[in-house]
Amino acid sequence: MKRTVLKFGGSSVASIDKIKDIANYLSRRVKDGEQLIVVVSAMGKTTDELLAHVHSITDSPNEQDLAMLLTTGEQQTISYLSISMNDRDIKAKPLTGFQAGIETVGHHLKSKISKVNTKLFDHLFLTYDIIIVAGFQGFNDENEITTLGRGGSDTTAVALAAALQCPCEIYTDVTGVYSIDPRIYPEAKRLKVVSYEEMMEMSALGAGVLTSRSIEIAKNYNIPIYLGKTLSQEKGTWIMPTIEMLEKKAVTGVAVDKDMIHITLNHPAYYPQLLDDIFINLEQEEINVDMISQIANNEGLQLSFTMKDTEEHQIQQIFKRLRQDYPELYFKIEDQFTKVSVIGSGMRDMTGVASKVFRTLIEANIPFYQVTTSEISISYVVDAKYGERAARLLCERFEL
Amino acid sequence: MKRTVLKFGGSSVASIDKIKDIANYLSRRVKDGEQLIVVVSAMGKTTDELLAHVHSITDSPNEQDLAMLLTTGEQQTISYLSISMNDRDIKAKPLTGFQAGIETVGHHLKSKISKVNTKLFDHLFLTYDIIIVAGFQGFNDENEITTLGRGGSDTTAVALAAALQCPCEIYTDVTGVYSIDPRIYPEAKRLKVVSYEEMMEMSALGAGVLTSRSIEIAKNYNIPIYLGKTLSQEKGTWIMPTIEMLEKKAVTGVAVDKDMIHITLNHPAYYPQLLDDIFINLEQEEINVDMISQIANNEGLQLSFTMKDTEEHQIQQIFKRLRQDYPELYFKIEDQFTKVSVIGSGMRDMTGVASKVFRTLIEANIPFYQVTTSEISISYVVDAKYGERAARLLCERFEL
User: Name one Pfam family in it (chains A, B) (predicted).
Assistant: First the structure.
């Protein structure tokens, strides 16, 4: 029997009426003979409402408590969806992350899935037609409830598909993947198919449709992912191995990542221990930095990197703490930057992409501050005010 | 170290501000050196809001799904309270019913506690100062989430106290137990102490401060229960074994149970199987009936009983179903009745209580339809319009 994991995000289940519409759609697919595992997020604004309550208590809530609170959001969605399915005479089984056997490791609020209990699903499908799993949540070896952090429900869905070796369909309120955000470049084309590698670059570089951790799982377990618009007839995008793609283009997409901050650190003497302390602290707080540049010589240490501004508060705290051990440490945090990236799996084979990009920005008088390259992408940090113009110019140059 | 279970009901935790007030109170007690286990209900109207959503989907939700949904209410309360405690530097550990090891049996929405994991608490108190448990919920042997039905959070608290052999304090928005509901008889006195037996009669007869199942657990494990008003200096009521009470009165209270319905069943022939079918059906739906009268002779079967009107819909369904097998079954459901009960553990030793009650009602021209007696109580069904007057007259007669 055909088995599929489907995931519906928060805006797709934002109201009881939307949940009923999804129940109708799922009923048809179950009646067509599919075994479905459905992963859902919290309804629309639920998480924001819970957080508003928390912030009326404290600005720094205990992480274990917060994970416990936030997971009630998805638990409510799975209950409503299961009630709707059972009401349509489809035998539905709702499962919290704990009940679904989603074991995690790491911080309570940024846990990573370590194991999924696949036997449970085989067993439940003997009795039930559809299994509805709370996304974004799991439990650790202390039996404590954890959450998976940003894009957590996608991760739940892809991890389940990987463990069960079946395809994964992810539904949101946009249709598939575009070569560039259509709000920036209205002529953007929707991609029918994209490789894991390209999609990972797009995600890591801020295209944001799916987090890179989800794509990485799909890639490692060779699970195709479909990205589509909830309850829409429009064709979405398949993410799959490169080898299955017929046609390669040098550049398939341009990603724009706004709200970046740029951090500069100086210390008059170069202590390897200092670098170590910095990165241990970043790792412990699970802060992602990218575009690291470092100069170390007799005149001391100079380090700069970029990151999302959402973690600005944490990074401030870290450096204030470090200054207690290194009183001469100087740091500066600047905001208002945008990262523009050009992505394409064909880039490995083709030359000239890099120089085309440089020329485009230079001709347009757009200054860029830091450049990093990967095997299939090139990224530039530019002033926020030039971000979208740079992206549009690059789309035109590469005929996206 | 002194260990106590405390329970705060839904109106006591109806807002974040109320939760913070309770956190302040609990902090003081923890700092005074107590080990506290706190059981909380869902915040104020949360359950009603969840049910409103459900009823926009269906009138007959799947019970497993509904239990899953409703338990999110207490899970949110324990999270907020734990965040508040941790914010006050009190090491708090929130536990869902599942995490607290509260095993249950029976219907998903009316489960009974079968086991509590006490070792867990001893273990957690090595690390934490206070353990916060979601009331009203548990899990069954299928690892499904269950709820404990009416008064469920009280049951959680008393069962934990019983398992841990420590006292239980139950806080609500009324102060302790009165000889009669002060809304009916303003001169009502608050009782300082009441026996398990008297309290069970009061509860079973509708006095409603605490369900009889909770008191039964306390009695079986010999756990004293304190009923008090949340964050109030006023002294409440202790419920404890009869033997510890210095003074006995023949009558300690009058209970008034409104919203009763009266069901009459007739069948032209007396089939023992029919009676069996009726009670099996009532048992399966876990419907509580009381005051059963039955006449069976050559002219057939006549059965009447009273029950709360909240289950009127279910009872209708049962009898409609039974009529498919017994087409000659006739049933009538009448509402607008009140049950008035006179309770007192001294009643065992003293005579004349029954005749005093009869005389009071007859003198006042209040007709009564059914009478039942237990070792320490006498109950009468009267027309709803006479209920409160009957209760007041009895209070005067017995000088309560």
Answer: ACT_9
Q: What is the pLDDT of residues A7-55, one digit of tens each?
A: 999 999 999 999 999 999 999 999 999 999 999 999 989 999 999 999 9
Q: A246-269: per-residue pLDDT in tens?
A: 556 678 888 888 888 888 888 888
CA atoms of A208 and B240, how far apart (whole Å): 62
pLDDT bucket at B195, cuts 50 / 70 / 90 = confident
**8 Å CB contact of B87 and A62:** yes
Return the pLDDT at A249.
66
Instruction: Please indicate whether, in this complex, the C-beta atoms of A69 and B53 are within 8 angstroms of each other.
Output: no
Is B392 annotated as contributing to ligand binding? no
pLDDT at A83 > cutoff 80: yes
Per-domain residue ranges of chain B = 3-173, 254-397
* Residue among B19, B57, B69 whose CB faces A87 most closely: B57
Residues in B touching A19 (Cβ below 8 Å): 57
Q: Which CATH number applies to A254-397: 3.40.50.300, 1.10.3720.10, 3.30.2130.10, 3.30.420.10?
A: 3.30.2130.10
Residue given tokens 């609170």 in the structure block: A69
User: By CA distance, what is A65's nearest residue in B?
Assistant: B79
The arithmetic mean of pLDDT across residues B204-220, rounded, is 80
Q: Which of A20, A53, A68 sits opposite B75 (nearest CB)?
A: A68
**Rounded Cα gap, residues B135 and B83, in angstroms:** 17
- For residue B389, which amino acid is it? R
Strands (E), chain A: 3-8, 35-40, 92-95, 102-105, 112-116, 130-134, 137-139, 145-147, 168-172, 177-178, 190-191, 193-195, 225-229, 237-240, 253-267, 290-297, 300-308, 330-343, 368-374, 377-383
Cα gap B270→B294, rounded to integer Å: 11
Fold of A3-173: Carbamate kinase (3.40.1160)
On chain B, the residues whose CB falls within 8 A of the CB of A66 are: 79, 83
